[in-house]
């Protein structure tokens, strides 16, 4: 196995850049289950301040549903991409919703039966995708992956399997964070700006690749092997401190970043 990489820290954020941020593991700590996540009181204000500095070119891109992401980050009213970009809220508030996925009902039934006899697992239904979390049962990683492969097969060519930190997910083929970044960069206020993408998981690698191809900054949170990222930040607190420093603010711990 390759050794974890120590990537150089990123340079300071520039006003001419466009900022794309993963959510879980990047802006907030990963918890035992997705519904236990703690959002700091000042995180939405921090995102709004960053958007003001970058002329609106800030977007949070997550595997969570768009509605859930919007609720967690309220009152931030900037750009969001949920379901790895399958559904979006533009910086002007325009919503883009995805069509239903053929075969997802059969995949949902298989997952429901699988979880019914394994209460330590958590099935997250995102409407247009399904995520099976095994954070409370890491020894079941292989069994969960096999179940996800069977679920994806039930939908024919409509779904793909994606693996993350203690989670396997089946999602529409056209949904990935790299495509989400590219789509947003084709629209104002992102168009013509140099992209910066920050993420912590395998699902963020597509974003790193797209940003690298455009001469932007790819920033990995944590120490990981086999990443396309060219810069690194150690943890969530480091990300928040880097973002706050770009605004001339105090890093977390010296400002009132209290959990809700």
Broad structural category: alpha/beta
- Return residue spans where pLDDT drops below 50 for at least 5 consecutive residues: 253-260
Distance between the termini: 39 Å
What count of domains describes the coordinates? 2
CATH homologous superfamily title of the largest domain: HAD superfamily/HAD-like
What string, H for helix and E for strand, traces the elements in order?
Answer: EHEHEEEHEEHEEHEHEEH
Strand order of the largest sheet: 5-4-3-2-1-10-11-12
**Count of DSSP H/I helices:** 7
The averaged pLDDT comes out at 88
* Rg from Cα: 18 Å
CATH fold field value of the largest domain: Rossmann fold
User: How would a textbook summarize the main sheet?
Assistant: 8 strands, mixed
CATH architecture of the largest domain: 3-Layer(aba) Sandwich
Task: Bin the strand percentage.
Answer: 15-25%
Shape: globular
Number of beta strands: 12
Percent range for helical residues?
25-40%
Topology:
Layout: E1 17-21, H1 43-53, E2 58-61, H2 66-73, E3 79-82, E4 87-89, E5 95-96, H3 104-116, E6 122-125, E7 130-133, H4 141-154, E8 159-164, E9 167-172, H5 177-185, E10 194-199, H6 205-213, E11 217-221, E12 231-233, H7 236-246
Parallel strand pairs: 1-2, 1-10, 2-3, 10-11, 11-12
Antiparallel strand pairs: 3-4, 4-5, 6-7, 7-9, 8-9
Q: What can you see in these coordinates?
A:
- With 260 residues, the protein is α/β, with parallel strands linked by helices.
- The chain folds into two domains: 17-98 and 175-246, Rossmann fold, CATH 3.40.50; 104-172, Alpha-Beta Plaits, CATH 3.30.70.
- Helix content is 29%, strand content 20%.
- It has seven helices and twelve strands.
- The chain has an eight-stranded mixed β-sheet with strand order 5-4-3-2-1-10-11-12, with helices on both faces. It has a four-stranded antiparallel β-sheet with strand order 6-7-9-8, covered by helices on one side.
- Helix 6 links the parallel strand 10 (194-199) and strand 11 (217-221).
- Helix 3 (104-116) packs antiparallel against helix 4 and helix 5 packs parallel to helix 6.
- Mean pLDDT is 88; it is low at 253-260.
């Amino acid at each position: 196995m390759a050794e974890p990489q120590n990537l150089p820290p990123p340079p300071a954020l520039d006003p001419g850049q466009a900022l794309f941020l993963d959510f879980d593991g990047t802006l907030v700590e990963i918890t035992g289950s997705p519904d236990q996540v703690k959002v700091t009181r000042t995180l939405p204000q921090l995102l709004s301040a960053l958007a003001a500095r970058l002329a609106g070119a800030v977007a949070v891109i997550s595997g969570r549903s768009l509605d859930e992401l919007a609720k967690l980050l309220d009152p931030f009213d900037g750009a969001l991409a949920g379901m790895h970009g399958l559904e979006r809220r533009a910086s002007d508030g325009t919503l883009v919703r995805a069509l239903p996925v053929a075969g997802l009902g059969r995949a949902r039934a298989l997952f429901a039966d699988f979880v019914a006899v394994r209460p330590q697992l958590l099935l997250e239904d995102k409407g247009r995708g399904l995520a099976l979390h095994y954070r409370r049962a890491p020894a079941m990683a292989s069994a969960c992956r096999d179940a996800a492969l069977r679920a994806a097969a039930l939908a024919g060519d409509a779904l793909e399997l994606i693996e993350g930190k203690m989670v396997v997910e089946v999602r529409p083929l056209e949904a990935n964070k790299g495509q989400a970044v590219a789509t947003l960069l084709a629209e104002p206020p992102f168009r013509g700006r140099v992209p910066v993408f920050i993420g912590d998981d395998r699902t963020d690698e597509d974003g790193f690749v797209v940003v690298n191809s455009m001469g932007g900054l790819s920033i990995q949170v944590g120490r990981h092997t086999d990443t396309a990222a060219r810069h690194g930040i150690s943890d969530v607190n480091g990300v928040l401190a880097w973002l706050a420093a770009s605004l001339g603010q105090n890093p977390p711990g010296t400002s009132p970043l209290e959990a809700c």
